[in-house]
Structure formats: structure tokens, C-alpha cells
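Narrative progress, year one. The postdoctoral researcher (J.K.) led the effort to move from monomer predictions toward full complexes, under supervision of the PI. The following entry was the first complex the group processed end to end, covering 1045 residues in total.
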Amino acid sequence: MIFNALASLRLTVWLLAMSLLVVFFGTLDQVQWGIRHAQAIYFESVIAWTPVISLLELMVTRNYGTEAAWFKLPLPGGYTLGALLVVNLCAAHFRHYKVGWRHAGITIIHGGVVLLLISGFLISALQKESRMWITEGGSSQYSSSFYDNELVLIDTSAADFDTVYSIPEAQLADGAVVALPGTAFTLHVLDYMPNASVFAAGDNPDAPMTAADRGAAARMGLTADEQPRVFQENRVNAATAVVEVRHEDAVVGTWLVSNVMDDGRIPPQTFTLPTDNGEASYAIALRFTRTYYPFRLELLDFTHEKYPGTDIPKNFSSEVRLVDPENGVDRTTLIFMNNPLRYDGHTFYQASFSPDDTSSMLQVVDNPAATVPYVAVALVGLGMCLHFAMKLWKHLGRSRRVAIQQTETPAAV
Amino acid sequence: MRPQLKHLPWLAGMFALIVALYPVFKSHNADGFDMDALAALPVQHGGRVMPLDTLARNQLKMISGKTAVEVDGKTMPAIRWLMELTARPEVADTWKVFRMDHPELLGRFGWSHSDGKFYSFAQLQPHFMTLDEETRSLLERENRFGLTADDRTPYQRSLMSLRGKLDRYHRLSQSLHPLGGLDNLTQEYMTWQMSVEPGSAALNAQIAGEPYDVMAFNRFTVLADRYMRLQQDVDVGLRPAEDPERPWLTVGELLLETLATAQLDPVALAHAELVESWRRGDSETFNASVASLQSAVDAGNKPVIEHHLNVASPFTMAMVYYIVALVVLCAYFIVRHESLRTSAAALIVAAFLIHTVSLAIRVYLQGRPPVTNLYSSAIFCGWGAVLLGLLFERFNRDGFGGFAASMVGFSTLVIAPALTSTSSNGDTLEPMRAVLASDFWLTTHVIIVTLGYSAMFLAGKIGCFYVVRRATQRSETAEAKRFDRRLYGQAYGITCFGLLFSFIGTMLGGIWADQSWGRFWGWDPKENGALMIVLWSALMLHARFGGVVQLRGFMLLAIFGNIITAWSWFGTNMLGIGLHSYGFMDQAFVSLYLYWFSQVGFIALGCLPEGAFSQLVRRVVRPPNRAVPPSA
């Protein structure tokens, strides 16, 4: 009974209709939330709470109706729909399965669709994206996350390497205390703001007070004011924290750290501590989570062509040198639109550039499941061609028979 | 017996083609001025070389929404407007080219809708102060509160749009030469040439603190200043630079070149003569200047061909033929005269030929695959649907492939101009942005997706046709039932085709994205739109297979498919998010809603009982006759 329901075509139709609705509302809500957050609400969720009235208002008036935003209709989310579609498809095939060439096309199509849905789950779980900025003449061996932040304490005492202690954003909260393993440091997060505006207080009497007494905040009179989080594509959440550093339970100082201070405009915030043999130097920062690579990329030249007399980009490309001392690799390559560099399981795409055309941004993608959708698409395409071709062949055969019958009928009469 | 008009279709087709070609060979010269040669002169604007005619049309379209101006009941072509605007601004300023719709904006200047939609520069001039103040305070406000153009009210949007149009108008008016003293332009240029040497000497002396010739100094700096400002304001390239990679030189740059060469540029000089002769009404000198420009600026045959394409406006012709064919086919469905059907088919073939040739010319001009922007996607979508519909007509000969073909052909060509993006200066052959400029993917992904749209629209039109037929007559006879089955079969077949193409096209898009930036699927609005088409056509096929819908239900689903296809085709572009966003287009949004409304109407019609409409008509036209005695 349940199996029959799961295998029924009515369920298929219902699931497809629901998917259509969710995709439609999910697209509309991107106006409010940006693509990434809407994706999390609608497509990477079990239940998608949909402010239907507000969204319809958006359609009509171009403005998101905030008054009716409290009303949210629970629609099945992308995960639910995807899982149910896979179950429905498999069940239907077991229930109605008939051997024979006649169904080969359909079977291949559905196999491909299942694979495609699975690849969707896989990619959503496994794919990592980050960005790597390189200035002309400079080099980089790490990439930064687009969204995630980390609080880092860096031991810069050694001459040829740094030791980085990283605390992911998820562990940061007002009042959190984090002990750094293997050191005598504890970090006390006095204030954590997922988004804030950081500015020089100056003479502004309304500016919030900050507890920071060391680093850029003390030197430049910076302070931070908490802001609501933003989700739009072109906006950045300035994650900011006020952190008290203690060493062997003695307070070293309090710093204001923020990912907007990590873009090179403000020098690194450093401090030193006396040790037995001289002194140790440290840096503290809140920054976009970095991934380090065992190789580095040097930007030799960035080129940006425009159409004559306009600002419309025609082409942009980065000439980079890839140096991997461990594997003895040292080669030069050109990264441009639709032509990425693939190395060591990472793919580097030309993504953006600075307004003065002197630095280039590469998008770094790690996707172990990258080939799965290709196979799935090939299967579905093949299956459809096969199935529809067979249908057409049959149809043509039938209409030919009908035509013959029609010509024969008058003679018989 | 009905008369068989065997040659009628041939005559209709040939006649249609001849009428369409006529404007290409017709001379458009006015009072001996060679306007055709002028219109074909190449200039560079918006990143590509185009004939002056295209520049005039696009700019006029951005200002007035049309490509011609009505002056005292006479229609003036865009090139004539451009000539008047640059050479005789005092005349052009009285032509009503500024389109304003917003009642509040009109009221701001003391006008109302009864004064019309179009206003002239001269009419607006007294209000410049008000306009300037209001736009400035709006911009200041936006700056202060961090607002963007998206937060503007409809009134503010139309205010800023008017402001933009005025700027555009002013910039264009000096794109061929500086303003002021238009009767003595050559003389001014001569003065400039002669003052360069003594003037720069005087300037150097002045800088060095030595005594200098004040007269020469003043003459030189006044003109140099004037041309430098011109150089900043103007964005129309008149002549290629020595280095072919560099942008063409504008009139300001041409004049400033004299600083280095001490020579007057012949192109700038010819434009000055053009203006003077136009003002004098001296067509002989005018034509000679145009000829000298023609030989001085060589940009191959593309500008000439594009000018011919503009003049012929083939897509408008094709649109007219599609609608005529549609009317003829409707007549055919009523009187069932075979020659009506064949004539309609001939008209569609003629329109299709025009459509095809113009599409091919656009491909040649741009050097890219046929679909490069929303406008061209509409042209191509229509083309694909007409091709499919004609094939159906060829095999079934029942008038109905033709009906669907002409309907989609007509509606896509109507909607196309509304899809021209505002960021492109109204140019439909604008250069491609780097992200999208990959011929391979443009050819495969975009064309296949667009053919998927064609198929979905075609299936939807079959649905519309079915519900109209069903509402107007009952299918009692076996023949009528057979006809319905055939419609059903066709709608089903086309939907299969649509699913195949939209799926493959969408997935090719995924592969393109994966190749470009490593993200197979990014939930971009356009991707979601394409996904919705795939989901919907899959739903239709499964609903049919599972017996959830029968003939009528399937047809209604097909009509609803039109709504979804229209949404994903250009509704998604209007949200202003993601890679495929081209900026908001109010006009297109209105068209979208109107279209949706019409399709909902068809669905409602399909929900009425069979023959309901004709019964209603019968009751209205012939009310029950009460005068008849009860028992006759």
C-alpha cells in the first residue's frame, strides 16, 4: 500500500509540481536574501518556510511586503523533494519494471536523473569554494573563504615559518573563552559581532565605547557598532570581535579585530612577550578562513581588454607561475575566462580583478564529485534521444499504416 | 463547385517578398540631399562600428521609444532627426521627442496626459532649473541614506529617466562637431589651425614668465579649452586611430590632434562642411562632403549592410506577414477553402525567408552565433518555432501548424524590441561581455535552450488553439474527434521535443558554468527558470502517462507552460540578481503580465463546457422568438 503510493505517478506529478513551486518562490526570495541564503532556505533544507504573500506582493509591486512576512507557508524543501523523487523513481521502476528494449530509454533517463539528484547532494556536501587574490609581481599560497571567518593568533617568532592557531567562527560568542592547546594563551571573547561597522570614533559622542586598549583600536581610535547580518550578493558581513588575550592568566591586552581590517589597509596587529631567550612576537586577527597550499602561485601579468571606447570587458587573463618545490613543479600558465588551471585537485578560475587592473582574483574550487553530473547528464541526454527516437519511429510507422488503410478503404467499398 | 485559385499562394508569397524588399532599393533622399549615403557612414559607438543610421535610431529610441519622429503629421526618419539635431538644433529642439508618461512628472511642468506623451527640448527648457534642483536633491538624499536606484519611487524613476534623456540629447547634439557658430564652423577650424603655432608659443612664454602675444594666447586657449571639454563629453568615434587596437577618435580628439600635426583632420573638416551645407540648403556640397567622408573612413561593407537592414526593418515586415497569415488561417477555419490555407502558408514561408535572411545578416554583422542577448533570443526563438510549425504544416496540411507558427512568430517579434536592455544604449548588436563571449557555448547552450523555449511556446499555442476550437464548436463527428486526437498527438510530440531541448540546453549551461568557474549549478534565477521549464514538461509527460490528465487537461497544462516559459525566458532577467540580470525593464514586465493574463484567459476558456461560447453567441445574436405561436 505504502509502496504503491511511493511508486505512483501521481506522487511524481505532485513532487514535480512542488519542486516547481519551491524553485519559483526560491528565485523570488533571492531579491530579499541574495542567492546564497535563499539557496539555504529553499533548496538545501528539509522544510522551506515560504512567505508566500510577501513574495506575491514583490511580483506585483516590486517591493517585498514586510507586513505579511510573518505568514510563512511550509513547503517541502529541496532535500525532502530530492530524496522523495529518488525514492519515487526507484520504487516506480521496481513496481512497473518490464524487461525489454522498449523501456531501455526510460530506464537510462531515470538512472541519469537519480544520479543527477545524487550529484546535487554530493556537491552540496563536498564542494568548497574560496578566493585567492594575487597582486602583479606578488605571490600567494593560500585562499580565503567567501563567507567563513576565523580568529587567529599567529606565532611569528621563528625566522622561516609561522605557527597559526585558528578558531573557527562557530566557536566565537560573547563571553567565549578559548584555550589554545600547547600554549599558555587563553582568548576571552568580550564581544562578538557577526556584522559590524568599524570606524574611527573621532569626536562623535554617540560612538560606542570599545574595551580594546591595544593595537589599531587604541592607536587610531577605532570602534565598532554591531549591524544586522546581510545576505545580498555584493555585501560583506564585517565579522568583528573584541578579544582579551591572557598569557599564563595575566592579561596581555585587549584587541579589536575584524575581517575588514585584514585587507592590507591597516597593518597587522602584533605584540611581543618576553621569553627566556629574548622575546616572542605574535599577531592577532579575525579574517576570512584561509586554506594553505603546499605550492604557490605568482602573478606575472594581469591583462584586461575592453571593447574600444567603452568599459565593457572583452577579456581578462592572468599569467601565473606555479611553483611546487616538493614535487619539483615550476611552470607558467595563462588563466582566462573558460580556461582554468587545474592542479592537485584544485581548480583555479579567473574570477575578478581590482579596479586598477593590478591584482587578480582567482576562484579556487575543490569538488571531488565534479564528474558525476557530467555522467548523469550524458545518461539522461542519451536516454531521451533513444526514447523519443523510438517513439517517433513507432508513430511514423503507425501513421504510414493508417495512410495505407485509408487508401485501401474506398477500393473495398 | 468552389473555384480553385491555384496560383494565389504563389502570388501572395511573391508579392509579400517584393513589398519587403522595396525599401532597400527605394531612395530616401530629401531635396537632393543624399541621406542614404549619410546614413551608411561608419562611426564607432558602444564598442562597435555601426552606420550613423544605427546610432541615430538607437539614440532616438532611448529618448522617445520610437525610431522615427512625427513632425506636423510627417514622419521623419531617425537619420534626418540626427542631422537636424547636430546641424540645426534650433529646428530639432522644437521636435517632440521626449517621451513622458508619469502624470506627476507631467504635472510638475504644468502638463497633463491630454497634452500628449511627447515634448520637445524647447518645451522643457524653461523647466531645467526645477529639474536640476530636484535630481540633485534626490541624489544627495540617496547618498546620505545609502539608497540605490532600486529604492526609487516610480515618479523618481521617471524623473531620473528624463534627466538621463536630456543628457543623452545634449551629448548627441555635439557628437559630430562643437556647438555654437554652426554657420562658420570651417572658419573656426581654420582659425584653430592657424592659432595653434603662435598660441602654443605664447602659452610656453607665459608659463616661462616671458612677455607673450595676448591675442594669440587668448584665441588659442579659448578654442583649446572648448575642444578639450568636447573631448570629455562626446563618445562617438568618427575615424579609426592609427593603431587598430585603439578606439576611434571623437571629434574633440580629431581637433586636438592639430596640436601635434598642425594640420586639420579632413574628417573633422568634412563634418563641418556637412553642417554648413545642410544649413545653407546646398545639397551639392553636402553630397560631396558625404562622399569624401565615405572614402576617408573605410570600415568595410558591414555598415552599409546594416543600414540596409535598418531601412528594410525586416522583422517588422515578417511580423506583419505572420499576423496577416494568422487572419487568413482564421478565415480558412471558418470557410474551409483550401487556397486560403495554402496562401497563408505561402505568406508564412515568405515571412520565414525574411526572418531567416535577416537573422543570417545579424550573425554576419556581429560575427557571433545568433543569440547574444535577450532581443536576439526572441528573434531566434520565434524563428525556431516557425520552422517547427511549418514542418508540421507541411506534413499535416491542416492549417494548424501554420496557425501555431504564425502566432509564435508574431508574438516573439512583437516582444523582441521590449527586451532591448537599457544598459546597451539601445543597441541590439552590442558587444558581448567577457564572461559570455564563448562562441562554442553560445552556439550549443544558448541555441538549444532557445529552441526549447520555441517548442514549449508551440505546444502552448496548440493548447490555445484547442480551447478556442472547443469553446466554439462541439466535436460530435468522428472527423472532429480525429482532429482532436491529432492535436493531442502533436502537442505531446512537441512537449517531448521541448523537454529534450530544455533539459540538454540547461545542462549544457551547467557544464559551461562548471568550465567557467567550477560551479555546475548556482541557483541563479535564469538557471532556476530553465529548471522550471524542465520540471513542467516532465510533469506534463508524467501526468499524461499516469492518466492524471486526458486530452483537455494536457492542453491546459500546455497553456500553463506558456506562463512558465515566459517567466524563465525574461521574467527571471528582471529580478536584477545574478549573472543573467540585465537590469530592470518596466516595459517588459508589463508585457509579461499582459501575456500571463491572456494565457490565464485561455485556461479559463478551456474550463468552460464544450461549445459554451458558440451557444452564448447564438443566444445573443438570435434571442428565442416569442412571437411564434406556442403550437404552430
